[in-house]
Design brief:
The protein has 153 residues and is mainly β. It has a domain of 93 residues: Thrombin, subunit H, CATH 2.40.10. Helices cover 0% and strands 54% of the residues. The strands form three sheets. A four-stranded antiparallel beta sheet has the order 1-2-3-4, with no helix packed on it. A four-stranded antiparallel beta sheet has the order 5-6-7-8, with no helix packed on it. The chain is globular and about 45 Å long.
Length: 153
């Protein structure tokens, strides 16, 4: 198979893109270093909006994952240990609220099969937490052994 570049989109220098979701012709990209979500028009090949995931937080934190459910985008932050929730209105993000992950250093998050919960995988607290998508409350915490440290031979 012959792979070649078709086009490119220039992002702000140093932002550190980490995870992207394609939704209704737009790319929603969370950045690890600048803690922002970039809204990119796939057709125009340009950034349409840049919005903070930490809403004024001045400490060290790193963007991790984005997911979309029913015209809402959720963006996780490691360090601040929160999930920012935005309403998607005409391909623009409108900040709604910040909810805790109920764990430390969320590495990834997914939606439950019935899409009523966010499942957050928290590396430093060694927990998996289920968060009710409507209330933001933690409804289940599953502790696990420290498997992130590797295996000794």
């Amino acid at each position: 198979m012959d792979w070649h570049q078709i086009d490119e989109i220039h992002l702000p220098k140093g932002c550190g893109p980490r995870h992207t979701i394609v939704y209704e012709g737009y790319l929603y990209t969370i950045t690890e270093y600048s803690n922002e979500v970039l809204v990119i028009d796939e057709t125009k090949r340009e950034v349409q909006q840049i919005i903070s995931t930490t809403q004024g937080y001045a400490g060290n934190t790193y963007g991790a994952t984005v997911l979309i459910q029913n015209h809402y985008l959720f963006a996780s932050n490691r360090g601040l240990d929160t999930i920012a929730r935005y309403k998607i209105e005409h391909h623009r993000l409108v900040y709604q609220e910040m909810m805790p992950t109920y764990g430390k250093h969320s590495r990834h998050m997914i939606l439950s099969k019935d899409q009523t919960c966010i499942i957050s995988f928290n590396k430093n607290s060694h927990t998996i937490t289920y968060l009710d998508i409507t209330t933001g409350k933690c409804i289940l915490t599953i502790p696990y052994a420290n498997v992130s440290c590797g295996v000794e031979y």
